[in-house]
Amino acid sequence: MFELITHVGEKSNSSLESNLESLAQVLETDLNTYKDDVIKIVYYCVSHMPCKLTIYSTLVGLLNAKKYEFGEKLLIKILKKLEEHMNASHFSICLNLMTFLADLVNTRVVTLSSFADFLEDLVQEAFEDNIPQVRSDWFIYAILHCLPWVGREMFERKKDILESILDAVEGHMMKRNKSYVEMLRVWTSSIHEQEDYLDCLWAQIMKLRSDDWTERHIMRHYVAFDGQLADALQHNLPKFIPTPHSSSNVYPLPHVVFRLFDYADCPEQGPLLPGAHSIERFLMEEEINWIILENQGNRKECATNLLDYHKKSTVPLNYVILEVIFSQLFRIPDSPIRPIFYGSLLIELCKTKTMPQVIAQAAELLYQRIDTMQLICIDRLVDWFSYHMSNFEYRWSWNDWSSCIEMDHLAPRHIFVREVLEKCVRLSYRQRILEVLPIGFEKMVPEKISICYDLGDEDHPLHSLAVEIEKGFRGRVTAENMIEIIQRENDRSGNECLIIFFSVLLNLARKTFSHNFAALTKYYITFKKLIGESEELQLLLLQTLYDVWKLNHQMVIVITTKLLKMSVIDASSVAAWIFSEKMKVEFLRMWIWELLCIALDHVTGELNRVRSQIEKLRNKMDYHSDEQNRDEGDFSDKEKDEENNDDGNIEDLPARETEAASLQECLKNLLLYILHKFIILMSEHIVNSEMNGSDIETSWFVYIDGRLQNVFQRVKFWCIYIN
Amino acid sequence: MADFSIFFYIYQIFKGTLQEQEERLLRSSTLYIGNLSYYTTEEQVYELFSRAGDVKRIIMGLDRFKKTPCGFCFVEYYRREDAEIAMKCINGTRLDDRIIRTDWDVGFSEGRQYGRGKHGGQMLQLMNDG
């Protein structure tokens, strides 16, 4: 039965209508026996397959027409689930369920008047006092999202209510705080409008309204069953009261609508791309978004389902797919799925005949518009494009981009190409990349990797200690013995000892990352002894690492990351080093910001891990309270008990909570430090510009401003203020 | 054929019951990576696989006699979910223009970095030579 219901609507020799009719007949036969199962399956399908929503609303309509009780039970189930998902902050599923309820009006399951009341209740909820804007926004979004399905019906039979709902929404739209829009736009300016998502949906609904609520996207299968549905007894929706806002609710973040293409970019022969403010564009993009999110576990299935999109003959499908993929990849602050998934999905899509040229066209458009692209998006574009190149033998019409070579080193096109080539070299090797590039590009490729080690020079003042330490390493002395060797040299400062020790280690371990990791692990105690709790020495350690490996950014990143994870250095030291005078020379390179983000992620990752442990311990505590009431003979819980033990003991809870508070403080201080540094940098620039009467918005300033936003976009720190 | 040989490989190397192996695979954060070019470096593997998450360590597979890379390695992540992303997104894509293959692995242990073919390389290669 599950297969029958979940697969209806897929490819078939019969028409969908006749399949629905047959399925309804099969189910009707024994609906008394199976109605609970059918309801469960329909609920599952509607939650997870919104593209097939009208198929299931039609099916439910047919079943309800035959058995009133079925429809009644289904509605109770849907509303109960709606409440559960709302409590759990599963808002995308809530949206699907609400839209399904709207469409059940069209299939004569739900009375229009009760659904109108439902919408009015949502309006009421949206305008509660003292709730976060993101909560109001979500209810408005849900209301507007239902209207393409049910708007026509309301327009014809409940016009007054429809108008009053729209008036209320319009009032809300006028008052919304949209200060975040600038930070969420992919481009600071663009030939395509980049709108706040609610503004865009509102404009789309207004156009739908001016078209008398007639749209050409939704497949209304139930029209074929008008005769059967006309006599159905309808149900009033039970009163639905959303759970009040609580601090544990997590609402979807606002976003800005991404636009890459318009109809002029698509082939002249072939379907037209619906306009940006058409409801068709919105509905289509919603569905493509869903296909990607639902298939993120399997990129081949994802590609197949995208290319099989049921509206593929009415839109330029390749362009729509690409626009949606890039809208997710460039979503600020975070893409909904790990960026590498989009890279592998696009590689999969390149296995078709026509998609490769559209991807190339998109890459070219993105390059042309990169001058105003936000830095966080440029970073993702660099990572995507270099990964893509590595799967296609690095073949590209690089010559078309040769004009960027002579541009200012802070021009976005120059940055992009330089950083792409650095990533390509990391995925490959320098000579290989040089071979595929036209003449003139070699200055954009990183210098040949080499280590900067001069302690081997007999004339170096620190040579003798370096020799002793090197003997120690080669002799495989223990970490403790190494400390003794170093401390023998009483005339060397602590600083010098640390520099020499680390430089020699890096030189001897230079062959691979693994050699470095093994050495760091073996001599962990030596590092701890030499550094102690000194932030100054941590900074010195990082500077030494850079001095030795300044021509190999990947090595600096990887070893710094390792030192962080080993707790030899702190994230705060990484930040201090990045903003230090000595690192000005690298301050504008992408790898520096990669590293700062790694340091931030390290702290937030630790904090999330500890919070997760706390949650498990609290659940365990609750579980043990219930344990008193359990039968002693219940063997099925033995495995669960053993599993719970893996999460640690309940007695650990206070220590974990202390740790979480400490990490929270570290993160706060780290962010304040970074913010402080940015303020100083930018203030100095502004003051100097005003004194000199020169432009403030130089390329340097634009870059630094982008990096400041980058940091806070990444940690979603700003989200706190929108609540 | 390749799948069978991998299974055989795992079975031969790792002591323990089939069920124990399956349980360890379900919790593992370690991947076996096959079909690498002999010239692919640890640094390249690191760059590619760190796009799925934090890599804890990489162990390059070596020819047992020559101690040179022979086309496979192990990648261990700090977190299982990052290894899952690598399985979904990197398996079957290219590194050094070769389509690489990833499989769950029960976890590295000393000795497993050496190829077990008669000539020191991979058994898979030996089969190909025949």
Automatic annotation (TrEMBL), chain A:
KW Nucleus (keyword) present: yes
The MIF4G domain, residue ranges: 2-209
UniProt region (Disordered), positions on chain: 623-652
Compositionally biased region (Basic and acidic residues): 623-641
Function: Component of the cap-binding complex (CBC), which binds cotranscriptionally to the 5'-cap of pre-mRNAs and is involved in various processes such as pre-mRNA splicing and RNA-mediated gene silencing (RNAi). The CBC complex is involved in miRNA-mediated RNA interference and is required for primary microRNAs (miRNAs) processing. In the CBC complex, ncbp-1 does not bind directly capped RNAs (m7GpppG-capped RNA) but is required to stabilize the movement of the N-terminal loop of ncbp-2 and lock the CBC into a high affinity cap-binding state with the cap structure.
Keyword Ribonucleoprotein: no
Organism: Dracunculus medinensis (Guinea worm)
Highest taxon listed in the record's lineage: Eukaryota
Protein name, as recorded: Nuclear cap-binding protein subunit 1
An example Gene Ontology molecular-function term: mRNA binding
Quaternary structure note: Component of the nuclear cap-binding complex (CBC), a heterodimer composed of ncbp-1 and ncbp-1 that interacts with m7GpppG-capped RNA.
Protein family per UniProt: Belongs to the NCBP1 family.
Any Pfam family the entry gives: MIF4G_like
Keywords, alphabetical: mRNA capping, mRNA processing, mRNA splicing, Nucleus, RNA-mediated gene silencing
GO cellular component: nuclear cap binding complex; nucleus
SUPFAM superfamilies: ARM repeat
Record GO biological process: 7-methylguanosine mRNA capping; mRNA export from nucleus; nuclear-transcribed mRNA catabolic process, nonsense-mediated decay; primary miRNA processing; RNA splicing
Localization, UniProt: Nucleus
From TrEMBL, chain B:
Coiled-coil ranges per UniProt: none
Residues annotated as domain RRM: 29-107
Subcellular location: Nucleus
GO molecular function, a single term: RNA cap binding
InterPro entries, per the entry: NCBP2, NCBP2_RRM, Nucleotide-bd_a/b_plait_sf, RBD_domain_sf, RRM_dom
Keyword list, A-Z: mRNA processing, mRNA splicing, Nucleus, RNA-binding, RNA-mediated gene silencing
Tree of life domain: Eukaryota
UniProt keyword annotation of RNA-binding present: yes
Gene Ontology biological process terms in this record: mRNA cis splicing, via spliceosome; regulatory ncRNA-mediated gene silencing
Pfam families assigned to the protein according to its UniProt record, in alphabetical order: RRM_1
One GO term describing the cellular component: nuclear cap binding complex
Subunit field text: Component of the nuclear cap-binding complex (CBC), a heterodimer composed of ncbp-1 and ncbp-2 that interacts with m7GpppG-capped RNA.
UniProt family annotation: Belongs to the RRM NCBP2 family.
Job description of the protein: Component of the cap-binding complex (CBC), which binds co-transcriptionally to the 5' cap of pre-mRNAs and is involved in various processes such as pre-mRNA splicing and RNA-mediated gene silencing (RNAi). The CBC complex is involved in miRNA-mediated RNA interference and is required for primary microRNAs (miRNAs) processing. In the CBC complex, ncbp-2 recognizes and binds capped RNAs (m7GpppG-capped RNA) but requires ncbp-1 to stabilize the movement of its N-terminal loop and lock the CBC into a high affinity cap-binding state with the cap structure.
Protein name: Nuclear cap-binding protein subunit 2
Organism: Dracunculus medinensis (Guinea worm)
